[in-house]
Prior knowledge:
This protein is of the alpha/beta class. Helices cover 33% and strands 16% of the residues. It folds into 4 domains: 24-48 and 66-162 and 170-214, Elongation Factor Tu (Ef-tu), domain 3; 269-518 and 525-542, P-loop containing nucleotide triphosphate hydrolases (Rossmann fold); 550-786, Rossmann fold (3-Layer(aba) Sandwich), CATH 3.40.50.300; 799-827, no CATH class.
Amino acid sequence: MANQQHTSSTLDPYARPYVPHSLRAVNEASNQHIIPSLPVRWIDFAEYVRSFAGSAFLQPDPPPPELPNAAPVGHKLEPSNYHGFFREALVHEAAALRIQCDDHALYKVPIQPAARDPRPCMYSLVVPGLRELSLAVELGDVVQLRQLHLDLRGEVLSGPMATYRNGHSLADESPMIFRHDAVIWAIDSLNGILTLRVDGLYHMSMQFNVCFTIQVGRIGAMYRAITTLEQALTFSGGACWTRSMLFPDETDGVLQNTLNKGTIRWEGRDKQLNYEQIRAVDTVLLQKYGDIPYLVSGPPGTGKTKTMVELALQLIAEHESSHVIVCAPSDPAADTLTLRLRIHLVPKQLLRLNAPSRSFPEVPQTILPYCHVDEDMFSLPPFQQLMRYRIVVVTCRDAEILVRARLSNADLVGLEQGVSSALHPENAVLIPPLHWTGLLIDEAAQATEPEACIALTVVAPPEGYEQTNLPLPLVVMAGDQNQLGPRTASKIPALQTSLFERLLARPLYRDHPLARSKQTGGVMRPLTQQMLPIVRAPFANLIRNYRSHPAILATPSSLFYHDTLEPEATDTDRLLSWNSWEGRGWPVLFACNTGADDIEGDGGGWYNRAEANMACQFAYSFLQSGLIEPRDICIMSPFRAQVKLIRRVARGARFRMHGVSIGPLEAFQGLESRLVIICTTRTRDRFIEQDLAKGLGVIREPKRFNVALTRAKEGLIVIGNPIVLRQDEYWRNFLAFCQRNGLWKSDALGEQAGSAKSMGDDDAADFVVSRLERQLLHQDELQADSAIEAANGMRKLNVYDPEREAWEAGLDAELYVQEIEELIDGES
């Protein structure tokens, strides 16, 4: 028995599926004949540059730098080792991407002629994991197909084969391996199918080994960016715009001696902006905080994107010569920005710049008029047309298109000076104003720093520009460092820490008296006369949540946002009449599950049948109640195999829930749903360390935990094993919140293990009660005492209610009102 336990404990649940040696040998064979395929069309950057600039006026574009071997440079990032620090990180990322490609290799799989595709040499390949985005591929990527030689039994012929003539053996030869470098011409993520262009294919077995390859251009673009910025960092001893963007300190800030004005001088396009959003936009427009990044810290549902859209519109309205780059880490996020900007702009003012690798079905129909299409691909508009756009929306990575097209500020200034010097050699060379006047990065916490650097190189001024009196480009980033960060193949902190998060951790932002972490009692204090003089805050803290019920917000607000979130959403009580809420009846429920987790035999991942049935039963119960539609329910799990199982169960004959959204946890970041059901899946603790090593699960993954809880608007159900989850301090706090308020449903199969009493020594009373929980309890007491219900069954929580804030912070109400009155007098 002991031996059995030892054997099971040493098994690797994430081990790759067994692949016969004969199949692996095909990939490693030396006698391979490589057959290329026709690539997809791409932008001819050299021709594009020739369309508006001669070679005499622009220095030749340097060749793409090769990524060298990594050399250890230490763990602390400084201006002096910036290039080496991220060079090493990118080398690790490239190695991790190769491993990721190897993990997704397919063996002895068929390809079929692509149905309903009239183009020649097109074949379809089914790729597991494509729907769950566990494999990142794009149009134009190369996929290696090695055609297999099979005998009559279907076995692979890999060894020497005898060649006969007239009954005599002439030679023993291994079969020639044909490696087709196929090219991805279409991607159907929903059905997990790639359409490949495969030229010169012999119709033999039609069985192939499939190897995915990393595309060097993706790493090369980031490496080029850090190389460019490193050169700027070393110019003039680092006293430059680039240094203040990447390593700002207090000396780069501006001292504030008077209180902020109580009025604004611009008219908002969005009439629904709140005070914090208006103040953020106004501060950037005034530009009195220095030539440093302005950071908008926006927790879930607080309107980060709304703020950035308003800021972009105000920037171009303020100056007719303004041209703004608006970036996001992903195409969907960039599309969202475009959808909101298009309401106020016409196509000749706004460009949504897409890479040629993007397929047309991915792009919302309503923004296609704002894109430039060259025959059958997305491309760059002509130079004169591009220069007239007031706002260009592009992903951080695709900003490389502007760099390669020589449309960065540095290249445009060099071009203008070169032409002017050629036309008027007798005149002194004048320094022109910059074309790109600002860079806004939304969801900046999801971009790696090298990705953000690509966008920075577009707007960065040329060397020596800081010595002029001309305006420098402003940089504004909005994000939430407490949600999921950059998605990378490697797990090294250098890439998993965004530029946004790194900047917020610098003393200029972290130690400022108005920083979120410096607020006491969960109440954001205003700037007062007594605090002056002070470095003007180069940041804004958004606090009003327009998404979730206060009971859903209580735990995340306390754990991640210093208890500062203010619930402002309306109609969040529409699910309260569901008859299976427990305890106080708040729309939060922890449902215990002790059903065993298990792993697919082929190493496909973890699943939990009991949990899948529970999740579907909860969703079905809500649908039967008539309170909600299927499209408003979301079921998520951190494990790919569990997602597939839940889909099968939900779509099956028992439930027939085809409209319910079911997917991996990461896919729901940035989204919201009326009802969210979280499947934690893991019910055994012995594999937690291996989960962590692979970056899976929700245990000891605080950012993943935060994202999961904050997707819900009106109802939140978490299914899990409390004994396993309580090993995580964040989950312990959530479990304690549920236990204190009776929001707990025990497992019928394991009453003792699933009961709230199994929490052990960490009694719920030992945890700090959050401000929002206190407010909910206070509200319940008021309702019980006076039988008076507020509108929508919920008392309005107003951030500027003096009585409430005084009660929360333990201050005297009269003194607090007096402080506000003094502030108003000072501003007036």
